[in-house]
Specification:
This protein is α+β, with helices and mostly antiparallel strands. It is built from six helices and four strands, in the order H-H-H-H-E-E-E-E-H-H. It has a single domain, classed as Ubiquitin Conjugating Enzyme (Roll), CATH 3.10.110.10. This is UBC core domain-containing protein.
Amino acid sequence: MILYEHVNTIYNNQDSIFETGTASSSAHLPTDEKNVTENTSNLGDTCNNSEGLTLGGLSKRRLEKERLELLSQKENTIKLLQEHADKWIIQITGAENTLYSNETFQMQFKFTEKYPIESPEVIFLGQPPIHPHIYSNGHICLSILYDHWSPVLSVNSICLSIISMLSSCKKKRKPLDDILYCSTGPRISPKNMKWMFHDDKV
């Protein structure tokens, strides 16, 4: 998005440029990766596994397996509320003896036919947790959702990572650049932003 090319700030796993003071010109500009993904958007259509399944077919099988695993869980810490072909609504509950103890939050997982090779888009719905790594528009600054994604990760492991991130929080507060990030334009997928990560302490 051209609009985002003029926002000179860092969206990282700790805080914004306004706290760290580590800006260095365009190296930290959030960028729109749409043009990059468009050039590779057709790769999944021709990529087959050893059984001859297209990546889209593999995605469906993988999601069905994950769905059954979520439904079989005895605890309600992670609960599948709604499911559609490419979109799930998950509810998580904050761990006991933490700042978010027994608080519940809903997240939307949006999948493509390239899942699990490609990470899902994950955002909070409604009122997100007040947390230094979570923006008011529901976007989450967590490396495994972007640069550090691996196909071995799953919906369950993402939820556990987010619960762990909440559990380690020492003080409820929004990111310092929350207002700027959430007001620079219409909603854009967090996957189309270039995130920078250097610290997971909160």
